[in-house]
Amino acid sequence: MKNKSVRKKIILALSAIGPGLFLIGYNIGTGSVTTMAKTGAEHGMGLFWALILSCIFTYVLMVTYGKVTLVTGRTALFNFKSEFKYGWMLSLYIIIALIIGELLALMGVMGIVADLVQEGIRLAFDGLVVSTFWIILFFSIILYFLLWFGRYQLFEKILTVLVVLMGISFIVVFIMVKPDLMTIAQGAIPSIPNTPGAMGLIAAITGTTCSAAVFIMRSTVVAEKGWGIDDLKKEKKDSLVSASMMLLLSGVIMAVAAGTLYVSGLKLDNTVEMIELFEPIGGKAAAFMLIIGIAGAGLSTIFPIVLIAPWLLADYRGTPRDIHSPLSRWLIFIALLFTFGTVFLEERPPALMVFSQAFQACILPAVAIPIFILINRKKLMHQYTASTKLNVGIVAVILFSLITTYFALTDSF
């Protein structure tokens, strides 16, 4: 009876932070895993400060976007289109940029998941190799079936399971490899390594954590949850849980790579290499835990990515988010075709992921500046305009977004 009571409390707690869990599932995907693992392997915990800042700024913008949605009753892009003279142009730019970025990410995500599942099958069945094409086809059919019949509440439950599974897997691996805690603490001191690609990695950390898509999607999932103006405190707590979990899980991944690969002088160019390198350190158990964790991270990201086009269009038009409409189903089908990208491209999935995350960092100023204007507009927000503390936070995010955009552009050209 006591166990049932505890289980019930846990389920209630998880359902109360539904939008946060949805965004953790979206945010901590294979892009995060690849970027954090690559950063940890190449620079130890030297760029941990960039992750801390990104998570703080993620919290600030999540609160801001959630608050504007709850007070106005309208989603982000529809607000931009309605409230600014050329808002329709800004909204269309955000839609196009996010869809391009997410389709690039989708190719990398599914490519990494397929590579990892292929490696897991090889380890489990004495060298049996299954083509990544068949693995991708298998997952795509399951995803399309779920999206054809499912509702947001079902996706939230699936993502909750995947996020919990992912979190447990990474924490277990962290305990297995026992990285040095003093090294982790030293990484909180800001520094920029004088090595090629370091600035690009800072931009990628920002792009995968403080992601423009997260804030636009935040507005949508808060509206989808049916929260209103009375839920402002709940929305703030939900944002805090979400940003804290992002910091914990991303930090654990970076620390695992820093405490093993970095101290051994090993580089990471492919996510499957991570499994191969960990096997001698933690045995097959650690390898399988990593496969489960990273695959869970990837699949939890794919759900929101394939929903992004229909949800963004509904957001822009101010119409109900009906993923079962013919247009939405076609958009989801087209998005799932991009999951086969790495089967036909020579570019490896991790390289695609780091590039797509750095690309996301370039969109951040376009979502940070307009929301700063809107949340301070008395006519729109009435007595709920931003406090001085929140305004300082948003200005800091805008400055940070401009710096990381510069880093992304500098490292790309």
TrEMBL record:
Membrane topology annotation: Multi-pass membrane protein
One matching Pfam family: Nramp
Principal subcellular localization: membrane
GO cellular component terms attached to this protein's record: plasma membrane
Keywords: Membrane, Symport, Transmembrane, Transmembrane helix, Transport
A biological-process GO annotation: iron ion transmembrane transport
Molecular function per GO: cadmium ion transmembrane transporter activity; manganese ion transmembrane transporter activity; symporter activity
Subcellular localization(s) per the UniProt record: Membrane
Transmembrane segments: 47-65, 86-113, 125-146, 158-177, 197-219, 240-265, 285-314, 326-345, 351-376, 388-409
Protein name: Mn2+ and Fe2+ transporters of the NRAMP family
Classification of source organism: Bacteria, Pseudomonadati, Bacteroidota, Flavobacteriia, Flavobacteriales
